[in-house]
Amino acid sequence: MAWRNTGSSPLFYVAFCAATVLVLKEVNSVVWEPYMDEPFHVPQAQAYCESKWEVWDPKITTPPGLYMSAVIIRKIFMFKCRLPLLRLVPALHLLSLPLSLHALELYHQRLPSSQDILTTPLSSVVLASFPPLWFFGFLFYTDVPGIAFVLAAFVMQANGSNWMTALLGLWSLFFRQTNIIWILYIFAYHTVRTLRFAQRRPTERSLHDPPALQSSFLDLAHSARSLLYLLPSLFWDFLPYGLLTALFGAFVVWNGGIVLGDKSNHIPALHIPQLFYFYAFVTALGWPALLLSGVGPTAGPIGLSKEVYRRMFGTPTRVMMTIGWTILIMACVQLFTIHHPFILSDNRHYTFYIWKRVLFRHRFIPFLMSPLYLACWWAWWIRVGSVQSMLQTLLLPLALIPTLLPSPLLEPRYFLVPYVFLRLQVPPYEETKEEGNGTKGTLEPDTLLNEISSNPPEGENTVRRPKRVSSGKIAQMHRRGIDWSEYLPWIELVWYTAINGITMYVFLHKDRTVDTIHGEEVIRFMW
Questions:
Q1: What is the pTM of this model?
Q2: Angle, nearest 10°, between helix axes 416-424 and 390-404?
Q3: Residue 390 in contact with residue 219, Cβ under 8 Å?
Q4: How far apart are CA 483 and CA 101, in angstroms?
Q5: Is residue 425 within 8 Å of residue 384, measured between CB atoms?
Q6: How many angstroms separate the CA atoms of 325 and 374, rounded?
Q7: Residues 6 or more apart in contact with residue 491 via CB below 8 angstroms
Q8: Nearest alpha carbon to residue 407 among 277, 527, 225, 299
Q9: Percent of the chain scored above 70 by pLDDT?
């Protein structure tokens, strides 16, 4: 099944580039001194620009990819490593995001690749403007370059280049060590997707991977067993990733841990509520995509709400399971919440106020949030699972475990890569296709989940075709509500622009001057 492609225009990307340049100029004119983590990164980059490769600040916890990038860009553009030009490094990587996201949208929607890379749809530009991601494109931080190379690696994997994916994945590790999880996720997601649609002889084993919304716990055992039989056939595809993982393991052993430099403030700890915070975060910021999308009976806000309610309270068994999961979440909140010193003392970040004035304003609030965390998880599972198999939908939550659980600090930047991958899996609202007679045809909601797993990507053989309904039935279905697919990118754009405008204005123009032991210090509020 090929989803409907949204309109594309080079003007969207041109506008994104122009806005990025204007905002970067404003940031450099107002914040003319290194801020927050920049006082660590900027001197290190300047040392590398002067070829002082032996210099290393022990307080820096990430590899030198950011500083090496500054040296490379300095060689290309022949500029001096001053702060305004160093901030150009993440800004340039920010400009690459819509291009990679466009390719990945086509990949997830099973549409043919575009020949004009600069003609991007609005949805790709909007996703690149996701508020925390966009914000850190203007500071000399590692986050945006790291994400840019993870997405570039995914694009290479979508094109079937395992070795190039591993090579780009290796470079992404020079910006953030946890990117190793997302490189392995890319391989796993692409492999599962390929195995689902592989044409095999009747005597050959195939992967057991039912539609996500029709799967059960028993299917997990069947899938694991079927996957074991297929592992030998994946050896050569996994070889580049195996070598990359071995190199990363050797680094961890040599370094004595995953964190470089200052390990005292980054000691791994079991922080299970991070999973709950992630789903609350992506629901709060990504609600347009969550509510105004989907196919079949779960499409739109009403369909999603009904399905969430059905899965949580539809039967006595489901009620008991919901109560059990809620109690388990409460127990995790009670036993595994970590009050990191940074989040308790650093009032320059929005997480300081969310932590103190929302999540822990009263001792009962974390427990009252527990059923909401569960509802958020169900909502995202239903939304992306309506067009994906069980394993495809399950891979992202599994990848969150080694990425977020060892981190004692609540940090929105840790949520950026998984949100981008989650958003890419969200289907447009109520998929339609052109019929032979020129009329629009809509997949029957009752047959959609059964047929979705049997529709291969563009260019591959189709196992069986989904059923169609009459034009009269189509008109009746469309009268049920608004076709949100045409409005979703614009609604997301308005929502993200409002958040970006407010947060950037506060950062630039609502600063405060406080007295410290080192003299007066300017305080700016940021993600």
A1: 0.89
A2: 170
A3: yes
A4: 23
A5: yes
A6: 8
A7: 288, 292
A8: 277
A9: 87
